[in-house]
Amino acid sequence: MRKIAAMLLLFVAVAGVALAHGANSHRLMGTVKSLHEDQLTVTTTEGKEAVVRLTADTTYEQEAKPANRSALVEGARVSIQLDEDNKTAMKIKIGAAGHEH
């Protein structure tokens, strides 16, 4: 019985560490404001401005298919998975451009 309890406790501890590590990765949603070299500026859904760093490892997706960085046009809606630093884009899902004029 002690072995089962010890293994259960170990499993819970390992799962807790794994979940805590995964919680460090955040998502940012908004609209592309501008793109300059390795920086993407986004107007968030809360109306704030956020600057995200793009790297050679950043991946892009549009309509559930791989996309190119060139799809990041002003006004495009984006959902960005951030690295643990909350400043570097790991994956950007690109939606349609908004029609707000």
Provide an overview of this structure:
It is built from one helix and seven strands; from the N terminus they run αβββββββ. The chain has 101 residues and is an alpha+beta fold. A seven-stranded mixed beta sheet has the order 3-2-1-6-7-4-5, with no helix packed on it. The longest helix has 21 residues, at 2-22. The termini are far apart. Mean pLDDT is 83; it is low at 15-23.
Across the major sheet, the strand order is 3-2-1-6-7-4-5
Number of strands: 7
Counted by DSSP, the helix tally is: 1
- CA-atom Rg in angstroms: 18 Å
Written as H for each helix and E for each strand, in order along the chain, the element string is HEEEEEEE
Uncertain regions spanning at least 5 consecutive residues: 15-23
What is the percent of helical residues? 10-25%
Distance between the termini: 68 Å
Give the structural class. alpha+beta
**Most strands sheet:** 7 strands, mixed
Shape: elongated
Strand proportion: 35-45%
| Mean pLDDT rating | 83
Which key phrases capture this entry?
1 helix; seven-stranded mixed beta sheet; elongated; alpha+beta; 7 strands; 101 residues
Compile the SSE list and pairings.
Elements: H1 2-22, E1 27-36, E2 39-44, E3 49-53, E4 59-62, E5 65-66, E6 76-82, E7 89-97
Parallel strand pairs: 4-7
Antiparallel strand pairs: 1-2, 1-6, 2-3, 4-5, 6-7
